[in-house]
Amino acid sequence: MTHRPIDPGPLAQVSLEATGDRWTLVFVRELPHPPAKVWQALTDPAQVGEWAPYTVDRNLGSIGEATLTMVDGDTAEPMSATVLRAGEPRLLEHTWGDDLLRWVLTPTETGTRLTLRHTLAERDWTPRVAAGWHICLVVAQRLLDGDPVGPIRGEAAREHGWDELHQSYAGRLGIVLDSMVP
């Protein structure tokens, strides 16, 4: 699928925290939309499928089991998920395989501050994760703005600045990249 080019814009505010034997990427993005509208983009399957790296089998706005299917071109990989907390329109917490995602929506004068805390096992993966979420959330904002570009997932993200974002987030997070691994 060919997408209209997107401008990834500036890097988001990011930090990295040790969480026991795991790592938490803290990714903050300002969105010019109210929390209730952003909440719908995070939970409604039709909207999630238009911006996220996965599709979902149900609305994520309630606690319980779900399936998040990773999509990369023609490849789809279902992964188990559990919605642990669903406090509309401010807090969504769910697993994604072995990872934990905690989305906090804070109202601001101009819309919403979205804070994603993505906890994962490998510290060296955090710049990749940051670059991926960066592109996904640019696409989500375009969806919320009423100018959707369609999901940009997997290898397709490389055509929209993923490699540069990956390198830039690695620098910001203090992670030295192995030159052999994209």
- The residue fraction in helices comes out at 10-25%
Question: How far is the first residue's CA from the last residue's CA?
Answer: 22 Å
Name the structural class. Answer: alpha+beta
CATH topology: Alpha-D-Glucose-1,6-Bisphosphate, Chain A, domain 4
The counted number of beta strands is 8
Strand content: 35-45%
Low-confidence runs of at least 5 consecutive residues: none
Order of helices and strands: EEHHEEEEEEHH
Mean pLDDT, all residues: 94
Q: Which CATH architecture?
A: 2-Layer Sandwich
Rg over C-alpha atoms, rounded to the nearest angstrom: 15 Å
**Major sheet: arrangement of strands:** 1-2-8-7-6-5-4-3
Report on the biggest sheet.
Answer: 8 strands, antiparallel
How many separate domains make up the residues? 1
Q: Under the CATH scheme, which class?
A: Alpha Beta
- Determine the number of helices (DSSP H or I, runs of at least 4 residues): 4
Q: Which outline best applies?
A: globular
Would you identify the CATH H-level superfamily? START domain
Describe the protein's architecture and organization.
- This protein is α+β, with helices and mostly antiparallel strands and 182 residues long.
- The protein contains four helices and eight strands.
- Strands 1-2-8-7-6-5-4-3 form an eight-stranded antiparallel β-sheet.
- A hairpin with a 2-residue loop joins β7 and β8 (111-120).
- α3 (126-144) packs across α4 (162-173).
List keywords for this structure.
single chain; alpha+beta; 37% strand; 182 residues; eight-stranded antiparallel sheet; 8 strands; Alpha-D-Glucose-1,6-Bisphosphate, Chain A, domain 4
